Amino acid sequence: MQGFNMGRYVPPDQEGLMSGNQLHGKHALGARANKISQGILTVRFEMPFPIWCTHCPKPTIIGQGVRFNAEKKKVGNYFSSAIYSFRMKHTACGGWIEIRTDPKNTAYVVTEGARKRDLGEDKVEEGDIKIMTKEEREAMRNNAFASLEGKIEDKQRLEYSKKRLEELQDLSEQMWDDPYEQNKRLRRSFREGRKQREKEAGVTVALQDKMSLGLDLLPEHEDDARRAALIDYGEVDAERVTDKAISKPLFKIEEPALKSRSKLKASKASRALKAEELARKKKENIASEIRGNTRAAMDPFLADSRAAKSDSKPFLAGVKRKQSQLEEDAPITTAGVNLVDYDSD
Questions:
Q1: pTM over cut 0.70
Q2: How many domains does the chain have?
């Protein structure tokens, strides 16, 4: 029966007399019990609150919920409750941190290698119940004035709590005096918001279909409208667009290549990466196309006054420059770009 003995062999003559762990000198908890002779057991400890590590050269915080392999050991008693210490190693600096239980105050206390981060949670707020120590209770019993002050404070707190509860109850009754009207008003506001959201979603989908965009469009903002007003989308340079179109081949030419099984496996594994790369290139192409077709809006009167003041003509990227006098005197001819050398019928 090796299944119940962690896979360790037990001779037939020893079956029923001792277990596989006893026969091989192993503990049932395995590596967790390497220091069990010293009373130390390795457990998984979760940080109950954020702390500052004092071993790190720079201030380093260990957040709440971070888990460590800690050495658990009993170090004392508080009446019949045991006090345990959890000693763990901070991997970032190699320093040791020790946290102990505090049954007296039902809390954890950092005793070595770190300090607790002050979040203001230890302060007694209004409505909280303060747990007094034994000395404080004895002082309260012996001091009649202190006990009287405590009773007065408790009465004032009780009166305030009753008044606050009555106000909340009156407000709730006033708001929900007619539940049908309240629900009707809530449903009406939800329907209005839903119609507006559906309308905006329809406009967004229509714009994506019209512009053939595979991108998620964010809702319109006032800053976007103001910046768009400062942008002037000028005419398209026909020669540049034509040269760009002619430079590309009419049909895509692909050379056949033999792929081995290893290459096929690699291509399947990198298919997701290729899809992300294609999406990124598509975004970059759209952005470059928009930048190429965009020029900043400019007041023509201000441009003429600046040109009159200085003979030098500064070059502004994206702004059309004034044509020379020879070009103005020359006759303007508009002709389409011929893609063939012969006349059409």
A1: no
A2: 2
